[in-house]
Amino acid sequence: MGSLRDVLSPFTAWKHVIETPVTLKNPIGREAADRYRGFHQNDTEKCIGCGSCETICQNAAIDMVPVDDPKEGDSGLRPQIDYGRCCWCALCVDVCMTGSLTMSNEYTWVDTDPDAFRFIPGVDEKPWDAIAKGYQRPGERMLSGLTRPEMMEMEPEARIDNFDEIVAGYSREQAVLEADRCVECGLCVATCPVHMDIPDYIAAIREGDYDLGTQILYETNPFSEVCGRVCTHKCETVCAAQYEGEPIAIRWLKRHIIDNVSEERRLEIVGTPQVLPTGRKVAIVGAGPAGLTTAYDLARQGHAVTVYEAQDHAGGMMRYGIPEYRLPYDALDRDIAVIRAQGVEIKTGVRIGSDITLAQLKADNDAVVLGIGLHMGRSTRVPGSDAPGVEAAIDLLRRITAGEEVPVPKKVAVIGGGNVAMDIARSMARLQKQKYGAVGVTVTALEDFAHFLADKEEVTESIEEGIEILDARGPQEMVTFKSGKRKGEVKGLRTWKVISIFDDQGRFAPQYDEADEIVHEAEMVVEAIGQMADVSLLGDELTEALQWNRGRIAVDADGHTSEPWLWAGGDSVHGPDVIHAVADGHKLAASVSAMLAAKAEVAK
Amino acid sequence: MKDIDKSFKKDTETDFPLREEMRPRKVTTPDGQVIDIDPLQDYFCQEPPKVHRKSYSAIVEGFYNWARANSLWILGFGTGCGAIEMRPLMTPRFDAYRYGIQWRPTPRQSNLLVISGYLSVKTLKRAIRAYEQMPQPKYVVGLGSCTINGGMYWDSYNTIKKLDEYLPVDLYIAGCMPRPEALLAGLMDLKKLIRKGEAEGANRYAENFDWYKANQKSVIKDWDMPDYSW
Amino acid sequence: MKAEALSKMTNVEEVLETVAEFDREAHSFYTDLIPKVSKDIRYIVEELARAELEHIIKLRGLLASPNMRAHLKDAILRPVADRRFSDAIQAPELGDAPDDQEVLQYALAREQTAIEQYSELAANTPPGPMHEVFSYLANEESKHKSDLEALYYQIVHSGGV
Amino acid sequence: MFSFQPDRSQYPDIGPDGKFEIDLETGKFLKLWQGPNHPGITGNMSVELTVNGDEVVEGKTHVGYLHRGFEKLMERRTFIQVFPIVCRVCVPEPDFNEYCYAAAVEELAGIETPEKAKWIRALILEMGRFNSYMMSIGGIGGALGNGIVGQWLTYVRDLMLDRFEELTGARIYHMFILPGGVRAGLPEGFEGRMEEVLATAERYLDDTEKLLFTNAVFKKRTKGVGYIDPALFESYGVTGPNARAGGVAKDVRKDSPYLVYDQLDFDVPVEHDSDIWARATVRYRDLRVTIDLLRQILAKMPKTGEVMTSLPNVLHWKIPRGETYIKGESSRGEYGYYLVTDGSGYPRRVNVRGPSYTHAMALLEHLIPGTNIADVAALMVSLHTYPPEIER
Amino acid sequence: MRELIEHLTPRYSLGAPVFQRPGLTFVDVKRDKLRALLLDLRDKHGFTHLVLLTAVDWLEEGRFQLTYLLNNRAADQTLGLRLYLDRANPMGDTIHDIWPTAATYQRELREMFGIAFPGSPRVDEEFILEGWTDMPPYRRDFDTLAYSQQTFVERGGRETHEPRATMKHKLYPEG
After folding, report:
1. CATH code for the domain in which residue E44 is found
2. Residue A274: which pLDDT band, with cuts at 50, 70 and 90?
3. Tell me, what's the pLDDT at D10?
4. What percent of chain E lies above the pLDDT cut of 70?
5. Do the Cβ atoms of D215 and A9 come within 8 Å?
6. Is residue E55 part of a domain?
7. DSSP code per residue over E3-62
8. E49, E56, E76 ranked by CB distance to D234: nearest
9. In terms of residue numbers, what domain contains A112?
10. Which chains are adjacent to chain C, needing at least 3 Cβ pairs under 8 Å?
């Protein structure tokens, strides 16, 4: 041991004396790498305050603090980060639903005050706010799914000659996958008109607890079958998942719950009123969503409720306005059965105004609630619009539902770009297919596809079914036969091209190209541009006595009209929408019930 | 994150008897006396340190502070993970020595204690002892989230959450863990504080000795360390 | 008849006075109509009446303004395009109890007539103050008409469910 | 020259088993604490030595100074929330925790790792090994009075930290290996900059060889010191370089290939003397292998491909009941994670098997009696233990 | 591996094996058969390496699971032996004489789970914790956050808000 080499060799280290030092001249503030996970930045405009960052933070470093007033789809909260907790793992950045939260590559923060290390990125100004370098998510978020499972639907060929329901509903596997995507921020709850506990029932799906799910649904909405199919799902428009990827299919998940609970089980879960009858009587006009929801709530509080319906079946617009292939009648009946089970009496085929007067109802009951729908179609009133062969969409739909014979010509033109236009176009297409084996429906809408009123899937499905949809066409005239046997009858629709429909401010300001004129050949022209309520049942006296608000009955926040005994809600007051009508129903019931309780107090 | 078990109460469990050496008992001392001891209650080193008075002359004090600021001698005691980022400072690349900063192996030669991250209760006991052994004037720098508010061990049963409950901290550096550059920036800031005469942690410790001791005792059981002179 | 009376005038003030008088007539027409229609749609007629009144006030303001011509020129620099949306909508006879759509149709037709008349007058007047005032008036009516069309779209074309 | 015979007349009695009867009252023994603040560079642990003259007669390892209760903390964090904290278990080589945890979760949750992610994981693990060996060899030099090696190699390690930083976005705690893959691919021009670091490293290693491994003093102090009988390897759970220094070619990368190690061409260096010298040399040689592996990985890595699979929503990610054990070859030996799940969103139990656990406790306590005080630090450092992975 | 398990099962009355992946198997074992089985595995079947010894607390089932993980390097096989102990009176058998390193594991289990291993060297000495007066912290019924809050002081001044509740409070307080 110990050769001469072992003694001399270490001295070679002296060669480093003449090397350039590796020392950094000024190490303080040396720029970190481009990807460095430094201090947080938040684009507060983009941020929606969903709180996913707070949920995922394993250090409890993030608090959601109010920065702004909440509005739809934005809680107004913004993350405040405690650098006495943070570990710079960037899971908050990875999970961020909007991609607003990022990290700069700045890393130096020295302070004598330990409380200074709490700040709201993007709100409290920091020197690194404008630094572009730092950790950003490389692509879309990957800590939760981006896309919905595809909904099983009937193929166009299979569905076009019948009125069977198109959408199959999610399977358990699909529903769990979809429910899994929810981050439970609850932003949707405020937007839902009835404030359904959406995250909770989605959680119930994940857990496979459909009984609990049903219970949650019924806490806020007795029309889960209906809303699970045709809800306008405002909730999905504010869903945090939409910013990267698709919003959660909340509507389909609701339907999935109700699909998995039998009618009998549902009755067991919901039960019957658990209170003694109060002896108070309430009459409700119209067995639509608003009326029936009111009835459901009031009946569960022990009041005797009678619903009067002019048509032969309960359901209102849900039955007579929505085609069967979107909302099967038996699904609607299952919802109504639960409501009936609460002791609600529904008298169908009774038209208020002609069969019984409103005054009579007023006399017989403690309160009257108006929940009438928009059953009258608007006409364009262009030349020829009163010709034979011109029909109102809503009227046709009603007749189809009621099983009445409707004329089915080979060529039909529809005016309108809303869901009703699609409904009648697709219904007529089915009837044509049954009768002639071919579809001949043209839809002309004033709006262009960018401003279309109908749901996207409605348009897609209509086109799949062979319906021609022409956007941006302004109706000018119903062309009629000028002579011959069919003189005066409709033979077509003349339209102009609409170049643009709204101006820069989004005000209605259409511009036409008169050179682009088309005459759409049709033996029937269906007007589906809008609807209104038939308020003639009120009678002149009451019409005059009531307060009105731009054509609709004026009500206060609780749905109370200017007459102390009369409440009104639903489509005729707040415009057409099932879920809004349900929300109105709850409000009306609460208001009526409060009044009845006050009466009972006085009686004591 | 799992929900907290609200029903949990510490120290109410009776199924787990204390270890033999932690129970109160009688002990015979080498000189034959029999004394009672209670390891969980007996504390030593109760003698408070003295407040380090400023010099009467502002010029002299200014000179002292200048000298102190330019000789930060750090105790080579890495209490937590952050210690690993101190090592590059000792090497040629970052070379903290050129700023008058160096590391010493014993507290008796150091005036700066860097608490490099979390402190387990067991280490807290040693850190306090090391700090108390350091001659005045002395400074404490808290490194990283853990010293500020518990950091990632905020729910650990074995680490303290707020360093300033137990030791007087002059300066904090954010990060988990702070890079050597940030640490160096912090030390430069500490120098400025010292020159301005604002790094008064040690005097705070002396003035509020009872408060600090009470806090220390609330978490450290079994304080079996001898008394020492300040 | 309107056009005839106006075409003979040579004075801007006179024209504006006369037009204000026309508007006053229109205002009283709508005011008279209010009780005739059902209460739920009365707001439309009330709005129409109010619009006429606002127009009168505007004309009065213009008359009182010292630099009236500048105002006129300024206004016609930003011509309002006729959208022609309601061209195909027929002008109805207002019966005893017209519905909301009929009232709007009627009002639209009135505006249409007015636009046409003022435009024609403007076209037949050589450049100068009189040309400006007719252009201005045509412009005003176009504006009014497009407001009405927007209202019509909102009420009638609610788009359906 | 001259021989030195100690006068044993003053020595304490030796019991029938050949060991000292330790009785502090005799005044012939002294308690000497090494640590916790500075026992070489091994981090915060302490050895309670009982010495008799220069000879240590008993050593007890004390740990727990860095105990944070990780295994408990993990039980109340969701599977994704565990991800940021695992790397903290071992400070100088955190990536093994990330890899083992991610692989364990992937196995129990049935997630496939993309091919490219496997290569990047292997790259990171080897980079971590590089750093760890740099610290270790520097530490051995430092503990034996050759601090300059520590200075050099810490500088080289810092260059590798720069590469870590640009790849993973952090210097020490990379938090880069997520369950399901890795966070990102290689940055532009990474290979070239890596090659520069490796070339620099080789240059400094050549110098280290001359200064340390061809050094009479170093040899004198390490050869024949701290001998571990290879027969003890199995009973004391000795793995990794400590075993390889004793002629046992234990290496998980070869014995049970994981990630892409079956596609890499490398030999496991083995020494036979099982003393401090052999342990230092085997690390030095393995470091050379690591540098070669880094080059191989960068050359063979697929240039394109996904680096991350999409995960189920991690906010309520549940993994069915099961248990698994994932291991890898860290710079200190077999590193493993034992993960038990119970079908909930939280791990039932995570047990970290750090190699230091066996090396620093029973083995060290077994080795210490009979050594010279001056050699204790070298012995500890040569075992290459990291206390945080002992107590977690 | 399957052959070995089949071979050992009758002799040591093993439970049903779980073949987690090629190279990793878990099997239940009875306490009275453990020692003989370990010796057999070590001496005859090449499972010479004790990888780890740890416990899992199945609080709901009232038992502790001890996992002995053994490795056969030549065959690249890892075998996990699961032994269940009554949680009310957990008592294990020391194996430090088979693997001396097991003493460390047993000391940790004694401290962290409160499982006794009579006869294991220094098993009752403090290991990781110092001055611990509460229940063993790795037990499932020990809540670390609750303990932490009751023991240590946190920095105040923090308050969080739930998005859903905030929006309800501000947008539809009555609903």
Report:
1. 3.30.460.80
2. confident
3. 63
4. 99
5. yes
6. yes
7. HHHHHHHHHHT----EEEETTEEEEEE-HHHHHHHHHHHHHHS---EEEEEEEEEEGGGT
8. E49
9. 40-119
10. A
Residue E163 within any structural domain of the chain: no
Please indicate, yes or no, if residue C161 is contained in any of the structural domains. Answer: no
- In total, how many domains does chain C have? 1
- DSSP letters along B105-130, please? SSGGG-SEEEE-S--BHHHHHHHHHH
d(CA E123, CA A214): 55
Domain coverage including residue E43: 2-155
pLDDT (0 to 100) of residue E132: 83
Q: Kindly report the pTM of this predicted structure.
A: 0.85
A320 and A385 inside one domain? no
How much is the pLDDT for A400?
92
pLDDT of residue B36: 82
Alpha helices in D209-275 (DSSP H): 216-222, 241-244, 252-255
Q: Which residues of D touch B153 (CB under 8 A)?
A: 68-69, 73
Query: Is C123 part of any domain?
Result: yes
pLDDT at B140 over 90: yes
Position A430 scores a pLDDT of: 94
What CATH code is carried by the domain that includes residue A92? 3.30.70.3270
pLDDT for the residue numbered D1: 46
B12: confidence class by pLDDT, cuts 50, 70, 90 = low
- Mean pLDDT, residues A297-314: 92
- Any B CB within 8 A of D162 CB: no
Mean pLDDT for A514-528 is 91
Contact list in D for residue B175 (CB cut-off 8 A) is none
Report chain E residues whose CB lies below 8 A from the CB of D366: 100
Domains of chain D: 70-391 (1.10.645.10)
Please say if the pLDDT value at position A174 is more than 50: yes
Looking at residue C64, which CATH number applies to its domain? 1.20.1260
Report the distance separating Cα A204 and Cα A212, nearest Å: 6
Q: Is the ipTM here above 0.90?
A: no
Instruction: Report whether C121 contacts C84 (CB < 8 A).
Output: no
pLDDT recorded at residue C109: 86
> In chain B, what residues touch D342 (CB-CB under 8 Å)?
none
Q: Which of D196, B92, D200 is nearest to A22 (CA)?
A: B92
Q: Are residues A366 and A381 in the same domain?
A: no
In a domain, A25, yes or no: no
Please report all neighbours of A, defined by 3+ CB atom pairs within 8 A.
Answer: B, C, D, E
Q: How far is CA A5 from CA A2, A12, A410, D219, in A?
A: 8, 11, 107, 12
Residues A385 and A509 occupy one common structural domain: yes
Q: What is the pLDDT of residue C160?
A: 42
Q: Do B123 and D66 lie within an 8 Å CB cutoff?
A: yes
Contact: A6, D216; criterion CB under 8 Å? yes
Band the pLDDT of B13: cuts 50, 70, 90: low
Tally of domains within chain E? 1
Query: Which residue's entry shows tokens 């295994």?
Result: D71
| Residue numbers in D near A22 (CB within 8 A) | 155
Q: Which of E171, D78, D97, E145 is nearest to A52 (CA)?
A: D78
| Domains of chain B, earliest start first | 58-219 (3.40.50.12280)
Tracing tokens 């009306």 back to the chain, one arrives at A588
- Let me know if residue E97 belongs to a domain: yes
Report the 10 Å Cβ neighbour count for B214. Answer: 11
Q: What would the pLDDT profile of A504-515 be if each residue is shown by its tens digit?
A: 777 888 888 888
Q: Maximum Cα–Cα distance for chain C, whole Å?
A: 54
Number of domains in chain A: 4
Q: Please tell me which of the candidates D169, D216, D308 has its beta carbon nearest to residue A135.
A: D169
Residues of chain D under the 70 pLDDT cut: 1-16, 18, 25-26, 38-42
Give A175's pLDDT tier (boundaries 50, 70, 90). Answer: very high
Q: How far apart are CA C63 and CA E44, in angstroms?
A: 117
Q: Which helix (H) or strand (E) holds A552?
A: strand A552-553
Q: How far is A535 from chain D (nearest CA, A)?
A: 51
